[in-house]
Amino acid sequence: VTILAAVAVLTLAILLAGTSGFFRIVAAVLMAVIILATGLRRLRRYRTLLPEPEPADVSRYDLRYRCTVCGLELKVEVATTDKPPTHCGEPMELIREGGRPPLHSVD
Ligand SMILES: [Zn+2]
After folding, report:
1. Neighbours of 64 (CB within 10 A)
2. What gap in Å lies between CA 21 and CA 88, rounded to an integer?
3. How far is the CA of 107 from the centre of ligand 1 (A)?
4. Which of 6, 14, 53, 93 lies most in the core, judged by the most C-beta atoms within 10 Å?
């Protein structure tokens, strides 16, 4: 379904929607299908653009993170990026780092 076809179907559906309850239901279903299809395709395209994650064993770098809210501490053994883990809805604080781990930087 191209964008043009979707717009045409939507316009037709909206025009017909005024005539009867049946067409109103058809229009609603059509709109839902089009919105879902567009959203799923966009999501799939976004996924294929992401680079393949390359997990690295960082256990010897002693990467420790602490949750600034509840105090939980974690030691990271394997990671794909240097992005800190999130706990209690907040990014965790790096408290110890034994050297520079070979991880991709994330802004
Ligand atoms: Zn927490």
Report:
1. 16
2. 47
3. 22
4. 6
Ligand 1 mean position, distance from CA 53 (Å):
26
Q: How confident is the model at residue 19 (pLDDT cuts 50, 70, 90)?
A: low
**C-alpha of residue 101 to centroid of ligand 1, in Å:** 24
Phi, psi for 103 (deg, rounded to 5):
-120, 155
Provide the token pair at 1: 């379904």
How many angstroms does the Cα of residue 76 sit away from the middle of ligand 1? 16
Distance 92 CA to ligand 1 centre (A): 8
Task: For residue range 48-95, list pLDDT tens digits in order.
Answer: 666 677 888 988 888 899 999 999 999 999 998 888 999 999 999 998
Per the structure block, which two tokens stand in for 54? 């390359």
Residue the block writes with tokens 């802004």:
107
Q: Which amino acid is at 64?
A: R
Which tokens in the block code for residue 11? 């316009």
Model-level pTM? 0.47
